């Protein structure tokens, strides 16, 4: 994980300990926008466009001085995001404000950007279309390596680096607010999840260019969204300090957790709890059934018989007092009146 002043740290889940790995920069103006591990090395990218590969201090098998830079690439200024290709970790994409999508191959650093997107043509007023890439994703099951991006101008675009066309092959708009987070669906290679600055989340169909549905419950800007590869859920977090879990089948909010601080990123472990396991409501219901079972009544009768006479009198007095203090409901009052009339 990355911290302020360009510090990269490692958190051990088993020992709950934090260890410093490397120092990317010491300036507060340089913010780390992307981090991942590739070939026993760490890859970082700052908002100033400095894409670096670092040797792991804890790995003695890496060549070169430990914790030093082994590669540096200039990606341009105002970088907003950096993402690696899950199928080919040597490929990394960057983008930002007035900085088009670029694709780099870390195995060929001298070649520069292997793909550089081109801006759209001028609009109907002959004005230049602004650029602001906010997040990047890779379509997993596509035959070609398609890259999908979200923009700060509520647009979703798909690029094909294998063709000569540098402009997007698919483009669509969603709502009217900046899209801050994007997540590719692991179940359909033509569907993506998006979130904007007011907490709205939706599932978009890139093939038909339409919104398939929204996920309710968000209140702040969505900073990160992740789908579990096997369980049909999507987890999101943002500036409202909540982690929310939505069911992909019903789009209902199943759980949410308050985390006390503004959240920027989340990761999902592959060890997910089995939905068939009993929940807390099921456990409470089971306990109530056990309390009202005949066996529990027999145990209470045996306990009453074991008490002495003085204790039984005290318990009976307390019960009569609690019944007297209990408010009389309308049904009980009607029953008492009917009994009095019958006696008369």
Short characterization:
The protein is of the alpha+beta class and 344 residues long. It has helices spanning 280-291, 294-306, 309-325, 330-343, and strands spanning 2-3, 7-12, 17-23, 32-38, 41-46, 50-55, 69-74, 79-84, 91-96, 99-105, 113-116, 133-138, 147-151, 155-159, 170-173, 179-184, 191-196, 201-205, 210-215, 222-227, 233-238, 242-247, 253-258.
What CATH architecture of the largest domain do you see?
7 Propeller
CATH fold label of the largest domain: Methylamine Dehydrogenase, Chain H
Mean pLDDT: 81
Distance between the termini: 82 Å
* Radius of gyration, whole Å: 30 Å
Q: For the record, what is the CATH homologous superfamily label of the largest domain?
A: YVTN repeat-like/Quinoprotein amine dehydrogenase
Question: Structural class from helices and strands?
Answer: alpha+beta
**How do the SSEs run, as a string of H and E?**
EEEEEEEEEEEEEEEEEEEEEEEHHHH
Instruction: Count structural domains.
Output: 3
> Which sheet architecture does the biggest sheet show?
4 strands, antiparallel
User: CATH class of the largest domain, anyone?
Assistant: Mainly Beta
Number of strands: 23
Strand order of the largest sheet: 4-5-6-7
- What is the overall number of helices? 4
